[in-house]
Specification:
mainly alpha; single chain; 60 residues; 3 helices
């Protein structure tokens, strides 16, 4: 039973990670195409600050 839980958790975590990576890649491509951060953030359902972090634009 514990192995099943672990496998399900690992799979769920993997899928979530892949979705986030795909969203970050799409955000990067849109930004490089000239789409504003506000538009990308709205479309992704994320904050502008999150978009800046994803794109490496956030100031340290």
């Amino acid at each position: 039973m514990m192995t099943l839980f672990d496998d399900e958790y690992i799979y769920k975590t993997y899928v979530e990670s892949e979705k986030k990576e795909a969203a970050q890649d799409m955000a990067r491509k849109l930004y490089e195409s000239g789409v504003s951060l506000d538009v990308i953030a709205h479309a992704a359902g994320q904050s502008t600050k999150t978009m800046e972090e994803w794109l490496g634009l956030a100031s340290a």
